[in-house]
Design goal:
The complex is a heterodimer. By secondary structure, chain A is an all-alpha fold. Chain A has helices at 4-35, 42-60, 64-85, 87-90, 95-116, 144-166, 168-178, 180-185, 190-215, 220-225, 227-236, 242-258, 272-287, 289-297, and strands at 134-137, 140-143. In chain A, helix 1 (4-35) runs antiparallel to helix 12. Chain B has one domain (4-18, 31-308): ABC transporter involved in vitamin B12 uptake, BtuC (Orthogonal Bundle), CATH 1.10.3470. Chain B is globular, with a radius of gyration of 24 Å. Chains A and B meet through helix 5, helix 11, helix 13 and helix 14 of A and helix 5, helix 10 and helix 12 of B.
Chain lengths: 298, 383
């Protein structure tokens, strides 16, 4: 058994990775709660933003901050475009159908990205400016990207919770989630509110893509399928609870990273999201009735 | 028990048992026989090895697509982990091939059985879950299996059950049945195994399980009310889909004489879902179309020097299009569109003929009346 010293650095990386899963999860839950769409293309959209950002920095030599902003904007715009073009056509369908349609978007983006950024895929990497700002926490070197990831996750989770409960737009979003038809009858501008939700979720995907590209790898396929880890967080949150999704994400990142020093577990540590999600699903569905009913209403 | 099928929609009528084949069904049988004759007698002898290998993959994936189509189209369960089941079947078969001298058909059945057991294990939690949760769980299962394969030197080529040869070229080839050692002969073998799997599924669809699945898909409450054992038939669907996927996985294992990890990634499961939806989940023809899209189209793209990534984009567009406008997929849409085209041409011809007869009084002599504008769109009223 490795000593405590071996685990320390992985706590930091674990929480940082978990924070990004948490952000992604919260971004997906917000969209799901308002539009009923579980966006499985969340990772692909973030990857597109990150790759465009990389191209801006390395080929056009644009200033870093501008490239980061473009990345976030791309996330928002692509998501908004999908939501406005495809969203209404599927609005009345089952959540399963809506989620499957976003697989289509993920495939389109993955194909396009692999095509455009096909050469020397391994040589590419994105290093955020904040990586160079570091400090020591005990014996562990921490960089600001990791801190920013965690702060951003907390802000998004708490901020979205307050936004949905306290603001007018948030209330309308919840009404929409409850019953689209009745909300429309009561004069809720359905399309506009949904557009806001798509845009918001898309902006979050842009930020998540940026941080993941820095923390994990700048590779279209890897980033597209990292959505699975974030999905595990949303499953733990039952696609409803922002708080549970947040902590689910952190726990997944933490357990995943802490598997590293234990040699017998290390190769299989990436199964963490799957195992935790299955456990959560089985546990929660056993307790079942009320939670399931609440989810059906949403 | 009242026949639950009588209340179902027309498109499900084809699963109900009838004493005789009607004209429509006879057409399907003729088409199926034609496909079989061509793929068994003509194609293996005239095509080059490149295309024969491609068609073996088509035969394999038509059955994988059939299994997923069964779950999605008949029972309404979206599984994003079918390729993981395929990997389990292939792996089992490869290990049995290395370790035993069992005859090939026995290996097929064992691989199917093992995959079937795994399918049931996945299916058990599915009983409690909503459709979306099931899709997520199977997606994560696919991810988890990919990780296991990456970390266990998949497929552990070498002698015995656990033998492992570190050199990728040192692995003994996975044995093929003695009657089908050449590629063309193996294509025939694969087509026959695929045919048996299709017949197995069709037999299910036309008998009691098919009716039960149709009822469950329409409404679980109604199914329960009419006495359908939902638990049993959902598990059954998973077991059947996994069994045929496992059997054909064994065929896949011996097709290339070596197994690689490449066809068993999470991305493959997702692509599979895309092509199955595009092919169409309400008829078994959809499975064949899906396999052609998934396995033959890349070969064609390769020859035309088109990027394989273009395929991904095509599949993505296809999924969105199918889900938003054409739920029956290509298998449902193509005959309708062809019929529509046929009628348009017929009416055009009729108008043109009529136009020439009536051309006398047209002063300008222009082709005016010959420009046919379809007065109405009869699609949907046709049987």
């Amino acid at each position: 058994m490795p000593s405590w010293q071996d685990f320390e650095p992985f706590i930091v990386t674990g929480i940082a990775a978990g924070a990004v899963y948490a952000v992604s999860g919260v971004g997906m839950v917000v969209l799901y709660r308002t539009t009923g769409v579980l966006n499985l293309a969340f990772g692909a959209i973030g990857a597109l933003g990150a790759l465009i950002c990389w191209s801006l920095i390395n080929t056009v030599h644009a200033p870093d901050w501008l490239s980061y902003l473009v990345c976030i904007a791309v996330g928002g715009l692509v998501t908004l475009l999908y939501g406005m073009v495809i969203g209404p056509a599927l609005a009345a369908r089952d959540p399963l159908v809506k989620a499957t349609a976003t697989i289509g978007l993920a495939l389109i983006l993955l194909g396009a990205m692999s095509w455009i950024w096909s050469n020397n895929a391994n040589a590419r990497s994105l290093t955020l400016t904040s990586d160079t700002w570091t400090f020591r926490l005990g014996s562990v070197l921490v960089n600001w990207t990791q801190i920013i990831a965690l702060i951003f996750a907390v802000v998004v989770a708490v901020g979205t919770g307050i936004f949905l409960r306290k603001t007018k737009l948030g209330t309308v979003m919840r009404a929409l989630a409850n019953d689209r038809e009745i909300s429309a009858t009561l004069g809720v501008p359905v399309r506009r509110v949904e557009a806001a939700a798509w845009l918001g979720s898309g902006l979050i995907s842009g930020v998540a893509g940026l941080i993941l590209a820095d923390q994990v790898a700048l590779d279209a396929t890897t980033l597209t399928f990292l959505v699975i880890s974030a999905l595990a967080a949303t499953v733990i949150g039952r696609l409803r609870s922002l708080t549970l999704t947040f902590f689910g994400g952190i726990v997944i990142g933490l357990v995943d990273a802490l598997g590293n020093p234990i040699t017998s577990i290390a190769p299989y540590k990436d199964m963490t999201p799957f195992i935790l999600a299955v456990a959560a699903l089985l546990f929660l569905s056993r307790r079942g009735g009320a939670a399931a009913r609440a989810r059906r209403v949403a | 028990m009242a026949d639950p099928g009588t209340t179902l929609q027309g498109r499900l009528a084809s699963v109900l048992p009838r004493p005789h084949l009607d004209r429509h069904e006879r057409g399907h049988v003729v088409a199926a026989v034609a496909v079989l004759v061509v793929s068994l007698l003509v194609l293996p002898s005239v095509l080059s090895l490149y295309w024969v290998d491609s068609l073996i993959q088509v035969a394999v994936y038509s059955v994988v697509a059939l299994g997923l189509g069964l779950l999605v189209g008949r029972v309404g369960m979206f599984s994003l982990g079918q390729v993981a089941i395929l990997a389990i079947g292939s792996w089992t078969a490869a290990r049995l091939d290395y370790a035993t001298t069992l005859p090939f058909p026995v290996i097929l059945l064992i691989a199917g059985g093992v995959a079937g057991v795994f399918g049931v294990l996945v299916g058990l939690p599915a009983l409690r879950l909503s459709g979306l949760d099931l899709a997520l769980i199977t997606l994560m299962l696919a991810g988890a299996v990919t990780i296991v394969l990456q970390n266990t030197n998949f497929p552990n080529g070498g002698h015995g059950f656990t033998g492992y040869t570190s050199s990728p070229f040192g692995n003994p080839p996975i044995r093929r049945p003695s009657i089908a050692s050449t590629d063309p002969a193996y294509l025939r073998y694969a087509v026959i195994v695929a045919l048996l799997m299709f017949l197995l599924v069709l037999w299910h669809l036309r008998s009691k399980p098919g009716r039960a699945w149709a009822t469950i898909r329409q409404s679980e409450a109604a199914a329960m009310a009419s006495g359908v054992n939902i638990t049993l038939y959902k598990i059954w669907a998973f077991a059947l889909a996994s069994f045929i996927t496992g059997v054909i996985g064994a065929v896949l294992a011996a097709s290339a004489t070596q197994l690689y990890i490449t066809p068993f990634q999470t991305a493959n499961s997702i692509e599979l879902m895309a092509v199955v939806l595009m092919g169409g989940v309400f008829t078994v023809w959809g499975a064949l179309i899906a396999a052609l899209l998934l396995e033959l189209l890349p070969s064609i793209f390769d020859i035309w020097n088109l990027s394989p990534f273009l395929l991904l984009i095509l599949f993505g567009v296809g999924v969105i299009q199918v889900l938003s406008t054409a739920p029956t997929g290509i298998a449902g849409q193509l005959p309708k569109d062809l019929a529509r085209l046929g009628r348009a041409i017929a009416s055009l011809a009729a108008r043109a003929g009529g136009g020439r007869n009536a051309a006398g009084p047209t002063p300008a002599g222009g082709p005016g009346p010959a420009i046919a504008v379809p007065e109405q769109d009869p699609v949907g009223t046709a049987p």
